[in-house]
From TrEMBL, chains A, B:
Catalyzes the reversible isomerization of glucose-6-phosphate to fructose-6-phosphate. One of its GO terms (cellular component) is cytoplasm. GO terms for biological process: gluconeogenesis; glycolytic process. It holds the Pfam family PGI. Belongs to the GPI family. Keywords: Cytoplasm, Gluconeogenesis, Glycolysis, Isomerase. It is found in: Cytoplasm. This is Probable glucose-6-phosphate isomerase. Its main location: cytoplasm. It comes from the Archaea. Its EC number is 5.3.1.9.
Amino acid sequence: MHVDIGNALAEVATPGVSEAALERLDAEVADAHETIAAGMSNAVFGYASLNLPETTSASGIERAVADVDADAVLTVGIGGSALGARTVTAALGEPEHYVLDNVDPEHATRLLDSLDLPRTAVNVVSRSGTTAETLANFLVVREAYEDAGVDWTERTAVTTGETGPLADLADAEDLPTLAVPEGVPGRFSALSAVGLVPAAILGHDAEAVLAGAREARDTLSGSLFDCPAYAYGAVAVALERRGAHTNAFVPYAEALEPFAEWFAQLWAESLGKEGQGQTPARALGATDQHSQLQLYRAGRHDKVVTLLRATERDDRAIPDTDVEGLAYLGDATLGELLDAEFEATEASLAAARQPNVRVEVERVDARGVGDLLFSFEAACVLAGELMGVETFTQPAVEWGKNAARGLLGAGETEEAAAVRGKREYRIE
Amino acid sequence: MHVDIGNALAEVATPGVSEAALERLDAEVADAHETIAAGMSNAVFGYASLNLPETTSASGIERAVADVDADAVLTVGIGGSALGARTVTAALGEPEHYVLDNVDPEHATRLLDSLDLPRTAVNVVSRSGTTAETLANFLVVREAYEDAGVDWTERTAVTTGETGPLADLADAEDLPTLAVPEGVPGRFSALSAVGLVPAAILGHDAEAVLAGAREARDTLSGSLFDCPAYAYGAVAVALERRGAHTNAFVPYAEALEPFAEWFAQLWAESLGKEGQGQTPARALGATDQHSQLQLYRAGRHDKVVTLLRATERDDRAIPDTDVEGLAYLGDATLGELLDAEFEATEASLAAARQPNVRVEVERVDARGVGDLLFSFEAACVLAGELMGVETFTQPAVEWGKNAARGLLGAGETEEAAAVRGKREYRIE
């Protein structure tokens, strides 16, 4: 991964970072890197995530699911138990990975009705084995297989912690079982079985994903000037300190749309703490130039726009046309059009002094997505250090979980009582 | 559509709006409504959009495409020429509407390879008939049909302005042609042929969409206290004035995910002007509780969270389980779980004094999506009046268009030269 921070400099953008400020920031990066490197060495909770490219065994995952014979995979998980896996298969161009990561009954019914169940493997993922949405969906999926006369036990793989209801179930039914790695929060687990099982079941090269991640890991160093991942994380924090409270994340590749969703969780849940944290706003290039660009150029100067693209791709020529006014497209390819729009958008933001950062990978493929996943995790860990937040926890979501449990009759909770006391002000 | 603004009140949230401030705001709403009503009466550019539920003829659209015999539709358009149509078919639960609204060559190839072209209609949409992305894609699509030996002229419908290359083409090939309505910007055109053709080709009830929109139009009045759409728009502006610079838009229904994208264009492109405008951050409930909620609760108080749900749906029981710790789910349905999470999230935001607004429709169906589309358009027009911006233009996107044209060889432009002068600062 390469990063170009030219359009985040104070000479170009407002807010922007001066070169002198970057030098000062680099001293902070050096300190943060020491903490991170020590955390990796000692496999400290959270920091251990950055060891996954080394500690995950692709062949081990492939062996575990070798007997799962399927043309499609249905992942049942939510948050970090789904986004990483979907990111990987999307980048691989794999269309037969479906995800049930919501508890919307109409959607569940439509999805299950559309699948060829005898040819579809089920991939259930929950560290605790008790995640309400995941277990509820799994019960629904199991029933759908049974109703269709299809034996789910022959085509289900489980990724979970060492103990818990899912581990017990996998044991009782003799299901292939993969471990959620120790010391790794869900949103940092894409480079483990949590993110790689669907790709492995569908015959993709999981090892290549890890190899791409290892290349990124080898760039980690004590200076933002030598490490693209740290450069991204450091500049994002520097801009946030100067008022860029939103990170508009815009991949110019449809196959990276799930990566933008994965980034949104990583960034929001890791850094959204103590009144800090950039709000990730997901978009897609070039499509959303026709949707968000007006605001990004002419709105407040409270955003950094992250523009992400691949520098190589399978291109496709635009056929010649005799349509007047379009002749200029005639010699171009779709890829050249996409690149022209990328660079035009980048420059148009700079012309409005709106800060933006260019991120490039060679290709959207197994290696490329491994590189991106690791690099943005490292960027996020660095950002957390610079911001002084607890990167690896998510304490603010517990309140809602307690409330939902209470509402569903698991016993009255203080939080459920607060839900019932809502201040209503309805406009009919 | 109903709106509950209780959690946007100053007694609950920071920022928040006091009841006294709401009363003062209502005087501004009354003035704005006069402008809007006059604009509608005189079919003034932009305001004319709010007449579409009356002026669009569903039967006219249905007649125009009656001879297009297809099981699937491929829409070729971008921005407002695609998002509305996709929003409508998604809300109708129609899986056979595909959209080519990007110029990503790998995606175009994958999509075209996956379609059964003899059974797929093509729906090309561009007001000017010269939109670069749309015409480039249409040329690619045409070639794919020809390569497959399928006559595209028998299954293509065109929606465009009165003149232009697409109108000429439709004339030459005798294609069904629908008019982009006069005085209606793309992002406000969902309730016209621009948004309804794919649904009509696939046999859905376009008239029911318009009927839902008419119900919403009948609520327009001079007071936010009597009109849910105006209540939403007014409270959003009041919160923006008090620092809520992001609008996190969270439907709790997978079938409304495209609606959130449509909203993001509407809000960003209409209101993102002169250093103003909320940044739309799209999310999806309940899924993104496991992604964004940590930030929304514990981050800056610079957001309003819009929580949208249907109050009726086709539900699905969660099968009984003997799994310990999940017994509390046993008597519930997926819908009850979803509602519990909706209300828990809403209350958890309020407990953190983060402002949020509840929006409800009866069902996600033709009537419901018509209601939502019209209501949010009206909310946006009102917001634009209160903010004093030019709601119906998007001047900031021209710079990038000129740059891209220059880069592709349509003749050197000042903007293209600026692209070539980029300030580089690469971290390798």
